[in-house]
Amino acid sequence: MKNAALLVMDVQHGIVSRVPDADYLPRLTRALDAARTAGVPVMHVVIGFRSGHPETTDRNKAFGALPPGAFTAEDPGAAIHPDVEPRPEEVVITKRRVSAFAGSDLELVLRARGIDHLILTGIATSGVVLSTLRQAADLDYRLTVLADGCVDPDPEVHRVLTEKVFPRQADVVTVDEWASALA
């Protein structure tokens, strides 16, 4: 896939621990293996804050309610899950809000590498995947969502997003369909 990158978003210990789908990480690992074999760059996007959370405010319902120290360098829950551990050549982007673009240098890294097609995966479908998809579409990126490479705490929300909302702005396929197309 020319000018494409696989984004693996918010697959961190403190977030993966809330995923009830035991098959999620093995599916995501298949996507990573397919991308790496095909030479598609893999980028990891994580939520991260400085000590004391100076980037957050109590006006933000999601991030203002985080316990002190959550998703900081000292928090073991902020680490990328070992099943999808980045290789040394893979970029790790730290974001400060829900979208992978918000408070990060993602767009700069993508432009520098000539990437114009994003393949989206991550936790949660209704969070980072939705927010990143919307912003990326507004920035004119070509988009593919790996439907089963995303997961959400609410299966019905995941279904509606992947079957009805995302197809308006992205190609939506399974990990196996995408991996087969790369082979």
From TrEMBL:
Q: Does the keyword Hydrolase apply?
A: yes
Q: What is this protein called?
A: Cysteine hydrolase
Q: Which PANTHER family match?
A: ISOCHORISMATASE HYDROLASE (PTHR43540:SF1), PEROXYUREIDOACRYLATE/UREIDOACRYLATE AMIDOHYDROLASE-RELATED (PTHR43540)
Q: What UniProt keywords apply to this chain's record, in alphabetical order?
A: Hydrolase
Q: Origin organism of this chain?
A: Actinoallomurus liliacearum
Is Disulfide bond given among the entry's keywords? no
Looking at the record, the residues that make up the Isochorismatase-like domain are 4-177
Q: Name one GO molecular function term.
A: hydrolase activity
Q: Which domain of life is it from?
A: Bacteria
